[in-house]
Input
Amino acid sequence: MVVKNITALDHINILTNDVEKCRSFYVDGLGFEEGFRPLFNIPGMWLYLDEHPVVHIIETEDTVPNTTGTIDHIAFRAYNFDAFTKNLDDKGIEWSDREIPNMDIHQLFVHDPHGVKIEFNFNTKEKR
Output
């Protein structure tokens, strides 16, 4: 018997050499909200969705690869496809999208400043 003790994904952590560039992308470009972060001895920030810190950004002096590593992407549910894509276009953020066959999901993809692929899932009915 497997004991089910895991309930949800809590957050992702991204290492960066440029916290401000990440802030601009995630906060200004994608609409995450910067919020409370404990006073760690390492510079960084926590980004929130609905009062939950879901993206942690930590500054590092180490070389940061421009890739997602062995993780292909991270994904979020989203809504208001037209407003979302208009904001991306206004901020000059490149994106691609596709519809998932036999499901009511339309996916949109962007890459953060470090090459991390981020997927946003919209209800197909929101797509023009």
